[in-house]
Amino acid sequence: MERADITSATLAYAVTGAGEPVVCIHGAFIADTFQPLLTEPSLAGRYQLITYHRRGYGGSSRTSGSTSITQQAADCRALLTHLGVARAHVVGHSFGGAVALQLALDTPAVVGSLALIEPGLMIGASAAAYREALVRGRQRYREVSAAVVVDEFLQARCPGYRECLDRLVPGAFAQAVADAGTWFESELPAQLAWRFDIEEARQIAQPVLSILGGESEALWGRFGETHRWILDSLAHAEGVVLLGTTHFPQIERPRPFAEALAAFFTRHPLSA
Fold this sequence. Notes:
- This protein is α/β, with parallel strands linked by helices and 272 residues long.
- The protein has a single domain (2-267), classed as Alpha/Beta hydrolase fold, catalytic domain (Rossmann fold, 3-Layer(aba) Sandwich), CATH 3.40.50.
- It is built from 12 helices and 8 strands.
- It has an 8-stranded mixed beta sheet, with helices on both faces.
- α2 (95-106) links the parallel β5 and β6.
- The chain is globular.
């Protein structure tokens, strides 16, 4: 990966392909969660795919203290500026979906479209339970080894994740364990403090694709509730449910996931 020096951090990044730029923002733990997409024919060669490690992950610089979601969005914007990209499709997974939404709020001209994979929103009936689960997870991290709590976290959201993760993203679990403190100590407090509700939703004018794993709601009802809330609350939102997947569809079934993204980008080109 190459490196970009931005304000107060160095970000590791990679750019592949050519065409309309697509920047992918990973969630907690797995910095290379979008790696399986780089060889998918519906995206590879048709788009300029930009993947990067957020601060505190993988090859990017370490972080201390809480890193706000506003700062995370500014990091992404700074990387795009470094690359000379004025406008891009933005794909955000889980916590990365929150970062993508904040980027659209802060610099709407930069975001041509948004694809959100089960973003970390605290809305509706599930909000309180989600908040409590995050707090319990941080306490669990402080009580047991990082490897145990990362495995518990991923198993709860993607049962049997390890087989496809080790096959498609070798070394990702070890990286997630090494970077676990970034999520629990730096990012989780920021997510608890972040606000995105109907007032913020009404400011999102870009086309939005909400992606829900077909098995996700059975694991945790908040995934389905969040998906429906996005479709009801954002002005130009459309949705897709990827059968046979849970919280990591880009790893579990990269081909249909990539095809869904490509179809969405085709419907909403940056030139529109």
